[in-house]
Amino acid sequence: MPETAIVTEQQPKLGEFGFAGDDHVVPFEVGPLDVRGRIVQLGPMLDQILGRHDYPEPVARLLAEASVLTVLLGTLLKFEGKFILQTRTDGPVDMLVVDFATPRALRAYARFDADRLAAAVAAGEASPKDLLGKGVLALTIDQGAHTQRYQGVVPLDGTSLEDVARVYFRQSEQIPTDVRLSVARMRLPGEGAGHEHWRAGGILAQFLPEAPERLRLADLPGGNGDDDEDDDPTDNAWQELLALFETIEPSELIDPTVGAERLLYRLFHEHGVRVFTGIPVADECSCSREKIRGILESFTAEEIVESTENGNIRVNCEFCSTEYLFDPTEFAKAE
Ligand SMILES: [Zn+2]
Protein backbone atom coordinates (compact mmCIF):
# COMPACT_ATOMS: atom_id res chain seq x y z
CA MET A 1 0.00 0.00 0.00
CA PRO A 2 1.93 3.04 -1.20
CA GLU A 3 1.65 6.21 0.78
CA THR A 4 -0.39 8.81 -0.99
CA ALA A 5 -1.42 12.29 -0.13
CA ILE A 6 -3.42 14.60 -2.28
CA VAL A 7 -4.65 18.13 -2.07
CA THR A 8 -7.71 18.93 -4.11
CA GLU A 9 -8.10 22.11 -6.09
CA GLN A 10 -11.76 22.45 -5.30
CA GLN A 11 -14.48 21.05 -3.13
CA PRO A 12 -15.75 17.93 -4.82
CA LYS A 13 -19.42 17.97 -5.66
CA LEU A 14 -19.75 14.63 -7.33
CA GLY A 15 -23.25 14.09 -6.01
CA GLU A 16 -24.45 16.84 -8.33
CA PHE A 17 -23.57 14.72 -11.34
CA GLY A 18 -25.40 11.65 -10.11
CA PHE A 19 -22.26 10.14 -8.63
CA ALA A 20 -22.62 8.12 -5.46
CA GLY A 21 -19.89 10.10 -3.69
CA ASP A 22 -18.13 9.15 -0.49
CA ASP A 23 -19.23 6.33 1.81
CA HIS A 24 -21.28 4.57 -0.85
CA VAL A 25 -20.46 1.14 -2.20
CA VAL A 26 -21.04 1.06 -5.94
CA PRO A 27 -21.67 -2.36 -7.51
CA PHE A 28 -20.70 -2.85 -11.15
CA GLU A 29 -20.71 -5.44 -13.87
CA VAL A 30 -18.49 -5.80 -16.92
CA GLY A 31 -20.47 -8.24 -19.07
CA PRO A 32 -17.87 -8.96 -21.78
CA LEU A 33 -15.28 -9.89 -19.13
CA ASP A 34 -17.73 -11.89 -16.98
CA VAL A 35 -16.72 -9.68 -14.09
CA ARG A 36 -18.79 -8.37 -11.22
CA GLY A 37 -17.49 -6.17 -8.49
CA ARG A 38 -17.83 -3.19 -6.24
CA ILE A 39 -15.95 -0.03 -5.59
CA VAL A 40 -16.00 2.43 -2.70
CA GLN A 41 -14.41 5.62 -1.46
CA LEU A 42 -14.62 6.11 2.28
CA GLY A 43 -14.48 9.73 3.44
CA PRO A 44 -16.32 11.35 6.36
CA MET A 45 -17.33 8.01 7.84
CA LEU A 46 -13.73 6.81 8.08
CA ASP A 47 -12.59 10.19 9.32
CA GLN A 48 -15.11 9.96 12.17
CA ILE A 49 -14.07 6.45 13.17
CA LEU A 50 -10.34 7.18 13.13
CA GLY A 51 -10.71 10.66 14.60
CA ARG A 52 -12.60 9.30 17.59
CA HIS A 53 -9.85 6.84 18.47
CA ASP A 54 -6.99 9.23 17.86
CA TYR A 55 -4.64 6.40 16.90
CA PRO A 56 -1.03 7.08 15.90
CA GLU A 57 -0.82 7.63 12.14
CA PRO A 58 0.54 4.19 11.13
CA VAL A 59 -2.13 2.43 13.21
CA ALA A 60 -4.89 4.58 11.73
CA ARG A 61 -3.60 3.83 8.23
CA LEU A 62 -3.71 0.09 8.88
CA LEU A 63 -7.19 0.23 10.36
CA ALA A 64 -8.35 2.33 7.40
CA GLU A 65 -7.12 -0.33 5.00
CA ALA A 66 -8.83 -3.08 7.00
CA SER A 67 -12.01 -0.98 7.08
CA VAL A 68 -12.25 -0.49 3.34
CA LEU A 69 -11.63 -4.20 2.76
CA THR A 70 -14.35 -5.06 5.29
CA VAL A 71 -16.81 -2.73 3.58
CA LEU A 72 -16.11 -4.36 0.19
CA LEU A 73 -16.51 -7.87 1.60
CA GLY A 74 -19.31 -7.17 4.08
CA THR A 75 -21.60 -5.61 1.50
CA LEU A 76 -21.38 -8.87 -0.49
CA LEU A 77 -23.57 -10.56 2.16
CA LYS A 78 -26.85 -11.54 0.58
CA PHE A 79 -28.75 -11.90 3.82
CA GLU A 80 -28.97 -10.04 7.08
CA GLY A 81 -25.88 -10.61 9.15
CA LYS A 82 -22.42 -9.61 10.20
CA PHE A 83 -19.07 -9.76 8.53
CA ILE A 84 -16.10 -9.60 10.90
CA LEU A 85 -12.43 -9.10 10.04
CA GLN A 86 -10.03 -9.80 12.88
CA THR A 87 -6.26 -10.10 13.02
CA ARG A 88 -4.21 -11.79 15.76
CA THR A 89 -0.54 -11.21 15.18
CA ASP A 90 2.76 -10.76 17.01
CA GLY A 91 3.68 -7.27 15.72
CA PRO A 92 3.31 -3.90 17.49
CA VAL A 93 -0.33 -3.80 16.28
CA ASP A 94 -1.44 -7.17 17.57
CA MET A 95 -5.15 -6.93 16.90
CA LEU A 96 -7.46 -5.24 14.42
CA VAL A 97 -11.20 -5.78 14.57
CA VAL A 98 -13.53 -4.40 11.95
CA ASP A 99 -17.11 -5.50 11.72
CA PHE A 100 -19.81 -4.73 9.25
CA ALA A 101 -23.47 -5.31 10.10
CA THR A 102 -25.93 -5.30 7.22
CA PRO A 103 -27.18 -3.17 5.68
CA ARG A 104 -24.64 -0.46 6.41
CA ALA A 105 -23.01 -0.27 9.86
CA LEU A 106 -19.23 -0.31 10.18
CA ARG A 107 -17.18 -0.15 13.37
CA ALA A 108 -13.49 -0.72 13.95
CA TYR A 109 -10.75 -0.69 16.53
CA ALA A 110 -7.06 -1.52 16.82
CA ARG A 111 -4.97 -2.70 19.73
CA PHE A 112 -1.30 -1.83 19.81
CA ASP A 113 1.72 -1.59 22.06
CA ALA A 114 2.76 2.07 22.15
CA ASP A 115 6.41 1.37 23.02
CA ARG A 116 6.90 -1.26 20.36
CA LEU A 117 5.12 0.95 17.84
CA ALA A 118 7.38 3.91 18.61
CA ALA A 119 10.45 1.67 18.31
CA ALA A 120 9.24 0.29 14.96
CA VAL A 121 8.58 3.79 13.61
CA ALA A 122 12.01 5.00 14.80
CA ALA A 123 13.65 2.02 13.08
CA GLY A 124 11.80 2.77 9.83
CA GLU A 125 9.87 -0.47 10.11
CA ALA A 126 6.34 0.84 10.04
CA SER A 127 4.96 -0.73 6.87
CA PRO A 128 1.65 -2.54 7.33
CA LYS A 129 3.48 -5.87 7.16
CA ASP A 130 5.99 -4.81 9.82
CA LEU A 131 3.31 -3.48 12.13
CA LEU A 132 1.16 -6.58 11.96
CA GLY A 133 3.94 -9.14 12.11
CA LYS A 134 3.05 -12.80 11.87
CA GLY A 135 -0.19 -14.43 12.79
CA VAL A 136 -3.61 -14.98 11.33
CA LEU A 137 -6.48 -13.04 9.91
CA ALA A 138 -9.94 -14.46 10.39
CA LEU A 139 -12.92 -13.48 8.28
CA THR A 140 -16.21 -14.50 9.83
CA ILE A 141 -19.70 -14.46 8.41
CA ASP A 142 -22.41 -14.59 11.03
CA GLN A 143 -25.93 -14.64 9.66
CA GLY A 144 -27.78 -15.28 12.86
CA ALA A 145 -29.13 -18.23 14.79
CA HIS A 146 -30.54 -20.12 11.82
CA THR A 147 -27.42 -20.37 9.73
CA GLN A 148 -23.98 -21.78 10.25
CA ARG A 149 -21.24 -19.36 11.15
CA TYR A 150 -18.57 -19.42 8.48
CA GLN A 151 -14.98 -18.60 9.28
CA GLY A 152 -12.06 -18.43 6.88
CA VAL A 153 -8.60 -18.13 8.38
CA VAL A 154 -5.73 -16.79 6.32
CA PRO A 155 -2.14 -16.82 7.59
CA LEU A 156 -0.56 -13.38 7.85
CA ASP A 157 3.15 -13.45 7.26
CA GLY A 158 4.16 -10.54 5.13
CA THR A 159 0.82 -10.92 3.37
CA SER A 160 -0.92 -7.74 2.30
CA LEU A 161 -4.61 -7.28 3.01
CA GLU A 162 -5.12 -7.34 -0.77
CA ASP A 163 -3.59 -10.83 -0.87
CA VAL A 164 -5.80 -11.88 2.01
CA ALA A 165 -8.95 -11.23 0.02
CA ARG A 166 -7.68 -13.29 -2.92
CA VAL A 167 -6.79 -16.22 -0.68
CA TYR A 168 -10.05 -15.99 1.21
CA PHE A 169 -12.20 -16.22 -1.91
CA ARG A 170 -10.15 -19.02 -3.33
CA GLN A 171 -10.53 -21.00 -0.10
CA SER A 172 -14.15 -20.24 0.63
CA GLU A 173 -15.84 -20.01 -2.73
CA GLN A 174 -13.28 -20.86 -5.40
CA ILE A 175 -13.98 -17.54 -7.06
CA PRO A 176 -11.08 -15.73 -8.73
CA THR A 177 -11.02 -12.35 -7.02
CA ASP A 178 -8.78 -9.34 -7.24
CA VAL A 179 -8.70 -6.34 -4.92
CA ARG A 180 -6.96 -2.98 -4.81
CA LEU A 181 -6.90 -0.85 -1.66
CA SER A 182 -5.55 2.61 -0.98
CA VAL A 183 -5.40 4.94 2.01
CA ALA A 184 -4.46 8.61 2.23
CA ARG A 185 -4.90 11.76 4.20
CA MET A 186 -6.29 14.75 2.38
CA ARG A 187 -6.26 18.43 3.11
CA LEU A 188 -9.08 20.60 1.81
CA PRO A 189 -8.44 24.11 0.52
CA GLY A 190 -8.55 26.80 3.18
CA GLU A 191 -7.77 24.38 5.96
CA GLY A 192 -4.58 24.54 7.97
CA ALA A 193 -1.93 21.85 8.04
CA GLY A 194 -3.55 20.28 11.09
CA HIS A 195 -6.84 19.65 9.26
CA GLU A 196 -6.30 16.44 7.45
CA HIS A 197 -9.03 14.02 6.58
CA TRP A 198 -8.66 10.30 6.24
CA ARG A 199 -9.76 8.67 3.03
CA ALA A 200 -9.64 5.10 1.84
CA GLY A 201 -10.68 3.52 -1.42
CA GLY A 202 -11.00 0.04 -2.73
CA ILE A 203 -12.17 -1.96 -5.69
CA LEU A 204 -12.98 -5.65 -5.80
CA ALA A 205 -13.64 -7.73 -8.91
CA GLN A 206 -14.73 -11.33 -9.22
CA PHE A 207 -14.66 -13.61 -12.23
CA LEU A 208 -18.12 -15.14 -12.52
CA PRO A 209 -18.50 -16.75 -15.93
CA GLU A 210 -21.63 -18.74 -16.66
CA ALA A 211 -19.64 -21.75 -17.81
CA PRO A 212 -18.05 -23.32 -14.71
CA GLU A 213 -15.14 -24.85 -16.64
CA ARG A 214 -13.85 -21.34 -17.36
CA LEU A 215 -13.45 -20.73 -13.62
CA ARG A 216 -10.88 -23.49 -13.53
CA LEU A 217 -8.90 -21.86 -16.30
CA ALA A 218 -8.52 -18.57 -14.49
CA ASP A 219 -5.05 -17.86 -13.25
CA LEU A 220 -4.95 -16.85 -9.63
CA PRO A 221 -1.86 -14.93 -8.70
CA GLY A 222 -1.44 -14.58 -4.98
CA GLY A 223 -3.56 -17.65 -4.46
CA ASN A 224 -3.20 -20.23 -1.76
CA GLY A 225 0.16 -21.51 -2.87
CA ASP A 226 -1.10 -24.50 -4.86
CA ASP A 227 1.46 -25.10 -7.52
CA ASP A 228 -0.27 -26.20 -10.64
CA GLU A 229 2.07 -28.58 -12.37
CA ASP A 230 0.76 -27.94 -15.82
CA ASP A 231 0.63 -24.49 -17.23
CA ASP A 232 -3.00 -24.34 -18.18
CA PRO A 233 -3.94 -21.58 -20.55
CA THR A 234 -5.51 -18.90 -18.44
CA ASP A 235 -8.80 -17.31 -19.21
CA ASN A 236 -8.31 -14.27 -21.40
CA ALA A 237 -11.15 -12.28 -19.88
CA TRP A 238 -9.82 -12.67 -16.35
CA GLN A 239 -6.28 -11.96 -17.53
CA GLU A 240 -7.53 -8.75 -19.06
CA LEU A 241 -9.20 -7.76 -15.79
CA LEU A 242 -5.96 -8.40 -13.90
CA ALA A 243 -4.05 -6.29 -16.41
CA LEU A 244 -6.56 -3.45 -16.07
CA PHE A 245 -6.34 -3.59 -12.28
CA GLU A 246 -2.56 -3.27 -12.59
CA THR A 247 -3.09 0.15 -14.16
CA ILE A 248 -5.01 1.55 -11.18
CA GLU A 249 -3.11 4.32 -9.42
CA PRO A 250 -3.54 4.35 -5.63
CA SER A 251 -4.46 8.04 -5.83
CA GLU A 252 -7.35 7.31 -8.24
CA LEU A 253 -8.94 5.05 -5.65
CA ILE A 254 -9.20 7.77 -3.04
CA ASP A 255 -9.41 10.97 -5.10
CA PRO A 256 -12.89 12.44 -4.54
CA THR A 257 -12.68 14.34 -7.82
CA VAL A 258 -12.31 11.04 -9.68
CA GLY A 259 -15.08 9.21 -7.85
CA ALA A 260 -16.03 5.58 -8.14
CA GLU A 261 -17.99 5.91 -11.37
CA ARG A 262 -15.33 7.85 -13.25
CA LEU A 263 -12.68 5.31 -12.30
CA LEU A 264 -14.93 2.50 -13.54
CA TYR A 265 -15.32 4.35 -16.81
CA ARG A 266 -11.55 4.83 -17.15
CA LEU A 267 -10.97 1.15 -16.58
CA PHE A 268 -13.75 -0.42 -18.54
CA HIS A 269 -14.99 2.01 -21.19
CA GLU A 270 -13.78 -0.25 -24.00
CA HIS A 271 -15.77 -3.17 -22.68
CA GLY A 272 -18.82 -1.38 -21.39
CA VAL A 273 -19.50 -1.27 -17.69
CA ARG A 274 -22.85 -1.33 -15.98
CA VAL A 275 -22.88 0.72 -12.80
CA PHE A 276 -25.54 0.25 -10.13
CA THR A 277 -26.85 2.65 -7.51
CA GLY A 278 -24.50 3.18 -4.59
CA ILE A 279 -25.31 1.60 -1.23
CA PRO A 280 -24.60 3.91 1.74
CA VAL A 281 -22.40 2.74 4.60
CA ALA A 282 -22.17 4.48 7.97
CA ASP A 283 -20.19 4.78 11.16
CA GLU A 284 -22.52 2.96 13.53
CA CYS A 285 -21.85 0.86 16.58
CA SER A 286 -24.17 -1.84 17.82
CA CYS A 287 -23.28 -1.41 21.49
CA SER A 288 -26.05 -0.50 23.90
CA ARG A 289 -26.67 -0.05 27.58
CA GLU A 290 -28.88 -3.14 27.51
CA LYS A 291 -26.17 -5.37 25.99
CA ILE A 292 -23.57 -4.24 28.51
CA ARG A 293 -26.04 -4.67 31.35
CA GLY A 294 -26.58 -8.23 30.12
CA ILE A 295 -22.85 -8.92 30.37
CA LEU A 296 -22.62 -7.40 33.86
CA GLU A 297 -25.60 -9.46 35.00
CA SER A 298 -23.59 -12.59 34.28
CA PHE A 299 -20.78 -11.41 36.60
CA THR A 300 -20.32 -12.96 40.03
CA ALA A 301 -20.66 -10.73 43.12
CA GLU A 302 -16.87 -10.78 43.36
CA GLU A 303 -16.41 -9.66 39.75
CA ILE A 304 -18.88 -6.84 40.33
CA VAL A 305 -16.81 -5.66 43.29
CA GLU A 306 -13.63 -5.88 41.20
CA SER A 307 -15.24 -3.83 38.42
CA THR A 308 -16.37 -1.07 40.76
CA GLU A 309 -14.32 2.08 41.04
CA ASN A 310 -15.34 5.14 43.10
CA GLY A 311 -18.79 3.68 43.54
CA ASN A 312 -19.40 3.17 39.81
CA ILE A 313 -18.92 0.57 37.14
CA ARG A 314 -17.57 2.33 34.11
CA VAL A 315 -17.60 0.47 30.78
CA ASN A 316 -16.10 1.90 27.60
CA CYS A 317 -17.05 0.50 24.22
CA GLU A 318 -13.77 -0.37 22.47
CA PHE A 319 -15.31 0.39 19.09
CA CYS A 320 -17.05 3.72 19.53
CA SER A 321 -15.60 4.90 22.87
CA THR A 322 -19.05 5.47 24.35
CA GLU A 323 -18.89 5.34 28.13
CA TYR A 324 -21.58 3.55 30.10
CA LEU A 325 -21.94 4.10 33.85
CA PHE A 326 -23.71 1.64 36.12
CA ASP A 327 -24.53 1.61 39.80
CA PRO A 328 -23.09 -1.66 41.19
CA THR A 329 -26.08 -2.08 43.51
CA GLU A 330 -28.14 -2.84 40.36
CA PHE A 331 -26.25 -6.11 40.17
CA ALA A 332 -26.43 -7.08 43.84
CA LYS A 333 -27.09 -10.81 43.88
CA ALA A 334 -29.85 -12.11 46.11
CA GLU A 335 -28.27 -14.45 48.64
ZN1 LIG B 1 -19.97 1.09 20.75
Secondary structure topology:
Blueprint: E1 4-7, E2 24-30, E3 35-42, H1 44-53, H2 57-74, E4 82-89, E5 93-101, E6 105-112, H3 114-122, H4 128-132, E7 134-142, E8 150-157, H5 161-172, E9 177-187, E10 196-207, H6 212-217, H7 236-246, H8 250-254, H9 259-268, E11 274-275, E12 279-280, E13 282-283, H10 289-297, H11 301-307, E14 308-309, E15 312-316, E16 323-326
Parallel strand pairs: 1-9, 6-13
Antiparallel strand pairs: 2-3, 2-11, 2-12, 3-10, 4-5, 4-7, 5-6, 7-8, 9-10, 14-15, 15-16
The chain binds zinc ion (ZN).
Residues 285, 287, 317, 319-320, 322 line the site of zinc ion (ZN).
Q: Could you characterize what this model shows?
A:
This protein has helices at 44-53, 57-74, 114-122, 128-132, 161-172, 212-217, 236-246, 250-254, 259-268, 289-297, 301-307; strands spanning 4-7, 24-30, 35-42, 82-89, 93-101, 105-112, 134-142, 150-157, 177-187, 196-207, 274-275, 279-280, 282-283, 308-309, 312-316, 323-326. With 335 residues, the protein is an alpha+beta fold. Strand 4 and strand 5 (93-101) form a beta hairpin. The termini are far apart. It binds zinc ion. The site of zinc ion (ZN) has 6 residues, from loops.
